[in-house]
Amino acid sequence: MKYLLTGQETERLKFRLLEQKDFEEWTKLFKEKNVANFLKLDTALSPTQLCQAWFDKAFYRYENELGGMNVLIDKATNKFIGQCGLLVQTIDDVERLEVGYSILPEFWSQGYAYEAASKCKNYAFEHNFSDSLISVVHINNIGSEKVARKNGMTFERMTDDVFNVFSIDKKNWSHP
What we know:
This protein is an alpha+beta fold. It is built from five helices and seven strands.
């Protein structure tokens, strides 16, 4: 499946496909305040319903070659840390490739999002998937904005009144 990092690794993380057995673990994310807003999901839904919407979209992406989020597993503890991946997105009627990332709250502020996002950026450019990448971040999601900026991205523009688009061009990328 194009754009997926299945089997890839970083210093601390292993990447694999999302599986139905991950549902209960991933539901924890949607119990956190503001997460539905940050992920542009219906805030009226319960955590279980939000997780189901996420899974439906993830499997749709897998089946339709639209990239997708990879589950991140800590290599030392074998714990489910979060998800990160390359996603085909349409922003203002233009198809773009996004580096998306979501980490379970208990693992926030430990560098996992940046580690995984950096791997996705490098993988996309090394495989010539696109000449530029974006990350779309809710204006109040300061943690995700910091990850995008640390990943070499700069503010491009605001879209939908509440999301900022950060981007990096391959020509400005420093190969590791």
